[in-house]
Specification:
Blueprint: E1 2-4, E2 13-15, H1 16-57, E3 63-69, E4 77-82, E5 87-93, E6 96-101, H2 102-146
Antiparallel strand pairs: 1-2, 3-4, 5-6
Helix pairs in contact: 1-2
């Protein structure tokens, strides 16, 4: 199975099986990029939720009756008491946490969101480039398969 271009263009001979293999590999890579992008977007959403929660909770000095989620999806809650809303335990990376005031916590979260936005841009750019390469390969495969004597 090979593909040859006509007289007017540069002569190229390509094994269609190699093209198909490359297409599948690029497709898997695109799927991995999409998965990574989804994770980054989810993390950005979590950071925005944390910032909004800090903003809302910092309006009160203490709260007598709050529901505390025991998981991320909200399957289980417990009643709780917030004795001091002026301090926040915030993740600074590598599973290290610090206790800071709400303003500093928001700054830390905004810095992390900025880092994630950069990662998001890079992933989107790479995914766009891979999508373009996939389309080019798809067209090349279609031309190769439509040639007589394949």
């Amino acid at each position: 199975m090979s593909y040859r271009e006509g007289k007017d263009t540069q002569k190229v001979e390509v094994d269609v099986n190699i093209l198909l293999r490359d297409y599948v590999l690029l497709q898997r890579y695109a799927e991995n990029l999409t998965s990574a992008l989804t994770s980054v977007i989810n993390e950005l959403n979590e950071i925005n939720l944390a910032k909004e929660s800090i903003k809302q909770l910092s309006k009160y000095s203490k709260l007598d009756n709050v529901l505390v989620s025991l998981d991320r999806a909200g399957y289980a809650y417990m009643h709780g008491l917030l004795k001091d809303t002026s301090k926040v335990l915030v993740n600074i990376g590598a599973n290290y946490y610090v206790v800071v005031d709400s303003t500093r916590a928001t700054e830390i979260l905004e810095r992390r969101a900025g880092e994630l936005q950069e990662i998001r841009k890079k992933l989107e750019h790479e995914l766009s480039a891979i999508s373009q390469k996939l389309e080019e390969l798809k067209q090349l495969i279609a031309r190769a398969q439509s040639q007589p004597g394949k």
